[in-house]
Design a protein that fits this description.
By secondary structure, this protein is α/β, with parallel strands linked by helices. The chain is built from eleven helices and eleven strands.
């Protein structure tokens, strides 16, 4: 048996995948969640017990941003990230034997809309607006804790691709119904990461005691939205896809209760620190990622 791993907010697409991978490696995996049947965020004693003598805690908690940004949702998106991070920091501080590594989710959305140059950890420019402010408060809360026995790493995660969930089912439907063309101008950058690389990056950081701070979690080969939709059509064997101009996206976003920022913002993010540390991506290109995803599931 390996050690113990704690996944906070571990019941979604990413958390479920990480649970399976860590369990396959022989880890005892504890999950903190708002859902019944898991350690409750309201039970601080149980959280401390789970964290104590664990090897790693990964915090994925936070309300999905796939919603309309009305006042109530904005408050919940921010609160669900900041409060869970604060609770974990306080609990780690009270552990007799705290975990040596705390990895907290952040988001590549923290950078500005970029079509002129890529954003790295050192030279990236922080953007503005609601989503960026959430990311800034999230990281500020995380790094506000001084935990001498626990390394802290924030992963600025780009859009996660995998066969079992995330954005793939939504895009699959669009392509099936003939809407697999470019979205908006099509020139906006699409930074992404395969979910297996996300897991491997966590293990890579876990094995290197010198690593802390912020890491961009994105493939080294981002693409444009136009290229992304073309790859989807290729993977699904669909030759033609109608483009979706901005006005159509705005209308559709209202109907399905989401925001066009998720599609139209240009996220051009490079994993500069991971590259310098020697991490080798399992799925560096979108072609490799799509072959794995669509080879493992029916289109």
């Amino acid at each position: 048996m390996s050690g113990k791993v704690v996944l906070a907010g571990g019941t979604g697409f990413t958390g479920t995948y990480l649970y399976r991978k860590f369990a396959e490696q022989g880890y005892e995996v504890k999950i903190i969640s708002r859902q019944p049947g898991y350690i409750s965020w309201q039970d601080k004693a149980a959280i401390i017990e789970a964290l104590d003598q664990s090897e790693l805690v990964v915090n994925l908690a936070g309300k999905s941003v796939n919603c309309r940004y009305n006042k109530r949702n904005r408050e919940e998106i921010l609160r669900s990230r900041v409060e869970t991070t604060r609770l974990l920091g306080e609990a780690i501080g009270e552990c007799p034997s705290p975990p040596p590594l705390w990895i907290n989710s952040s988001t590549a959305t923290i950078y500005r809309h970029a079509e002129d140059r890529p954003m790295t950890e050192e030279e990236g420019e922080i953007g503005s607006g609601f989503s960026v402010n959430v990311a800034k408060e999230w990281e500020k809360t995380f790094f506000s804790f001084q935990l001498p026995k626990t390394r802290q790493v924030a992963l600025r995660i780009s859009i996660v691709l995998g066969s079992d969930g995330g954005v793939i089912p939504v895009y699959r439907h669009l392509v099936r119904f003939g809407l697999g063309g470019r979205q908006g101008p099509g020139t906006q950058r699409f930074s992404w990461i395969h979910i297996e690389d996300l897991y491997e990056i966590i293990r890579f950081i876990q094995d290197r005691d010198s690593l802390n701070g912020v890491f961009n979690c994105a493939s080294p080969y981002p693409i444009t939205n136009d290229e992304w939709m073309e790859q989807l059509r290729r993977a699904m064997g669909v030759r033609i896809g109608l483009p979706s101009p901005r006005w159509m996206l705005e209308l559709g976003a209202i109907i399905i209760r989401t925001e066009t920022e998720l599609i139209l913002k240009s996220r051009w993010v490079l994993p500069d620190r991971l590259a310098k540390e020697g991490y080798t991506f399992r799925y560096p290109t979108i072609q490799a990622a799509m072959d794995e995803i669509f080879g493992a599931s029916s289109s």
